[in-house]
Amino acid sequence: MGKIVRIFLQEKKVSEEEIPKGWELLGGRGICGKIISSEVPPEADPLGSKNKLIFAPGLLGGCYVSSSGRLSVGAKSPLTGGIKESNVGGTAGQKLSRLGISALVLEGISKEPSILLISKDGVKFESATDLVGLKTYELVEKIKSRYDEKNAIIGIGPAGDKKLFLSGIFVSDIEGRPCRYAARGGLGAVMGSKNVKAILIDDKGANGISYDKRDEFLTLSKSWGKELIESRKVFTEYGTAVLIKIINELGGLPTRNFRVGSFKDADKISGETLRENALSRGGRMGHPCHPGCVIRCSNIYHDKNGNYLTSALEYETIGLMGANLEIGDLDAVAEFDRMCDELGIDTIETANSIAVAMEAGLFKFGDANGVKEALGNIEKGTVIGRIIGSGAKRAAETLGVKRAAHVKGQALSSYDPRCIKGTGVTFLTSPMGADHTAANILPGRTGYHFYDVDDDGGGVTSKEKKVEISRDVQIMVAVCDTLGFCFFVGPNLANMEFFAKLIKARFGYNCSALDLIEMGKDVITTEIEFNKKAGIPPVSKLPEFFYKETLKPKDLTFDIDEENIKKIWE
Amino acid sequence: MGKIVRIFLQEKKVSEEEIPKGWELLGGRGICGKIISSEVPPEADPLGSKNKLIFAPGLLGGCYVSSSGRLSVGAKSPLTGGIKESNVGGTAGQKLSRLGISALVLEGISKEPSILLISKDGVKFESATDLVGLKTYELVEKIKSRYDEKNAIIGIGPAGDKKLFLSGIFVSDIEGRPCRYAARGGLGAVMGSKNVKAILIDDKGANGISYDKRDEFLTLSKSWGKELIESRKVFTEYGTAVLIKIINELGGLPTRNFRVGSFKDADKISGETLRENALSRGGRMGHPCHPGCVIRCSNIYHDKNGNYLTSALEYETIGLMGANLEIGDLDAVAEFDRMCDELGIDTIETANSIAVAMEAGLFKFGDANGVKEALGNIEKGTVIGRIIGSGAKRAAETLGVKRAAHVKGQALSSYDPRCIKGTGVTFLTSPMGADHTAANILPGRTGYHFYDVDDDGGGVTSKEKKVEISRDVQIMVAVCDTLGFCFFVGPNLANMEFFAKLIKARFGYNCSALDLIEMGKDVITTEIEFNKKAGIPPVSKLPEFFYKETLKPKDLTFDIDEENIKKIWE
Known about the structure:
In chain A, the strands form four sheets. Chain A has a six-stranded mixed β-sheet with strand order 2-1-6-3-4-5. In chain A, strand 4 and strand 5 form a beta hairpin. Chain A has helices spanning 28-39, 92-98, 136-146, 158-161, 187-193, 214-231, 233-238, 243-250, 271-280, 315-322, 330-343, 347-359, 368-380, 383-389, 392-399, 421-429, 463-483, 493-507, 513-533, 544-548, 562-566, and strands spanning 3-8, 13-18, 53-57, 71-76, 83-88, 101-107, 114-119, 122-127, 152-155, 169-171, 180-182, 196-201, 284-287, 298-302, 308-310, 406-407, 410-411. Chain A is 39% helix and 14% strand. Chain A has a domain at 3-201: Aldehyde Ferredoxin Oxidoreductase,  A, domain 1. Chain A has 570 residues and is α+β, with helices and mostly antiparallel strands. The A-B interface holds A 43, 45, 47-50, 78, 162-165, 362, 383-384, 386-387, 389-390, 394, 397-400, 402, 533, 535-537, 540-541, 543-544 and B 43, 45, 47-50, 78, 162-165, 362, 383-384, 386-387, 389-390, 394, 397-400, 402, 533, 535-537, 540-541, 543-544.
């Protein structure tokens, strides 16, 4: 078991404590939830001194098993006003694990802009006064020139400095680039409000990971890894962008601010096009978002001249900045992605917010220069930039736009809930707001399904079943998020059993799949309880237009029984 | 008992129903609450088709008794997301009462901009396409030229047309001017969202009010009226602006966005200055906000050249657009007031929102031209105008400003809660958000007290007592709001007894002061229950700065025990 390290920013003090009894199965999202729910007042201003920002690697973080190195970032969200956990790849999570840190808790507000340096020797506070306002790529270069290049860097861009609600927190990837994001929920604004520009994780000389039964662990891990390599090949080859054509064919790819479910230029922004461009220009497919992951769904994308442009170009970004803004040009979307990474903002929230600005007539659908102008406004901090920067829901309120795709104040990911209905149920019922990562229920018969839910293919499953499936998958995703696993490994029963074995081999204590499922339920219950106290009901509604308009071209409606959804957590 | 008239805007249909059994004591706020809580989905979009906008005169509306002619306007508020009742003088309430209408319920959304004409013959729908965008004074002139001049007009300005959250709903006064406002909660945006520009109330040929015992009613009313004339003289002479000097001396007059509690130029914007200017320029003090009110705290204010400028100039407007923006010039404030009335916006929300824009550096404190420019931006609908127009809380979120004085998303009235602590308790605990009208607990020893709370003078009362007093007064104000009485008559026990006698003489049924108090509790409970379902807890917190900073010059803190406040509704 690791320790909880608390950093009192105002006083520049640090304390350490053991993980409390009863938290033996917790890490990542689970630890974030426990700390937030018991320590952050539900009514606290998300950008005020009483919010806490937590970085927690998963329980199995740092271990020799594929896809387990994700880092959970938690706080009360400025977008939803509720609890938030957003997890991210990169190199920071595993380094924290190796330092024996289960959770890093930032408390209060630093008097001056700071960098925190975390190593086996403790926490050092350094000034970041000259770094505030820097875009992320330059920030990372400056930091590398001053500190050990091998440090993992966690940081925010100029949007986070400005506390814009669509700001995310980056973690440097294995190339040292600021391109992996704990993007959702406005956590970058929380970090900005704490006056912390970056956190460096230095694991030199760390104790590393010990195992109760190392060989057993490695054996388990090895065969599982092999299976993952086989079954996830399509992601290794095409990245998450493989979904563009699939979701488009199903009629659920958000187009023109969720007006239509398929995009005429889907081919131009597909995973297939991405692969072709990446490989022909010297970029790369099959890039891991964190060390040791065999799924390797990330990529490196070069521009037409063969120069590095961005990493990684994901389905969500392409769907929402491409189809949903009617930009049928992958290079343009790649440029947007780089700009978002430079500013330190969530591409999902940003794209939805720009769509709202387009509804208001400030920019035009289909106009890539307009999108760049919008992003330029965010960079400059103009009033228009601040409006877009406040997120889709608030931008719509300010601009008098009704058509804003959000739940609980957080924008929808790139799945129209009228088509991808199981994920729609997740949007409405996840304590996190509209997060596909909380349980993405994709059709199971396309060959690309994550969930081993064979019978959930394009309308095959009954509506009741979709609610059940969303609930079960949400619980198992909560387990993945707590152990540090990417949900791409599959939030299914077989994996719960496998995780239980890993935990036994790593820590020596007995634990069953059912124990893990109970833990997952408890994680979600804790989050829901916090939300209730913060005034956020367990089940939300979609914006009115999703109920009023059918989704072309397949004339789909969101017809999952409301009463059934309401009972999901009973 | 009157009837409920429902207007289905989309279908241009009307239905009528009797008041349900059990609602015998309800009118005004009470009826609004019952209808909203049982018919509006708590999660409904305040500007969507499922919200309902209700106009309800008080139970004793239209009767021959002073100060009973107020009109309640209710809906789910876009500012707070909770239930809202805002009441207003003018001539509409009494006319509705004379038409036998207890509640006018607007449902759905009109396909085209409309005027609704309410008379004894029913409801007529007329087009308002050419009136959309008009400022209120011109709107009223156009309407008068087309329809009977004697109609009461209920309407919205261009801000309501734009659905800006700080929009109010005006009711024409006895001069036919658009200057009485159901200002708070953003109800003008709700009316705008329904696509209704104005409602005309024509009571020609109406049945009027019948009394069970007319003579008894008139006898009761007469002696009470005399007493009111005597005891409220200071308001007749100086208007509500008499409070400027009093609150300033107590150290609770919001100055420079609630930084200080007294304003160096308080004298220049005081009730005394107001009276002097009004009388010397051909304006008027002692003007009634609705026919028959003997308190007559309203006024008519002329400019330096003796031309009509605005009516009425109230304490809240002067405190918040004067002291709180550091404008020590009553004529400038009167101009702001007129501009706000023209645009159809709440001076309280607007002033607080402009203060936020000043914090962000968009305008300067103390600069009257800056305030006009800000209001001009609202008129033009620029992005800055829309940001300010979204209200203080949202403007602060968008502009990245921490210092925004609001509770539940609605801006504070002109009392610093660190000084006027009882009203501070009301701000935190009223289902309406920061409304002084929910229970304004002013010191009782200044000679100007409303509440006959003798022992609540400047710190004399214990802190526990202030919570109790706020609760009791909130309940009795709910009674006043339900019966149609202005809370200036005094929400006290003696008046509850008096109201019970009036109800007996009017309707013939027995009712005691205790029955009314029970009714008041039920009104508030109904509101709190709706809010809970909408995710708004019964007790809120002030923004952080109110707890962190002491209020100069008297070094006051908001030191009412939080645990005690939390128990207020138990």
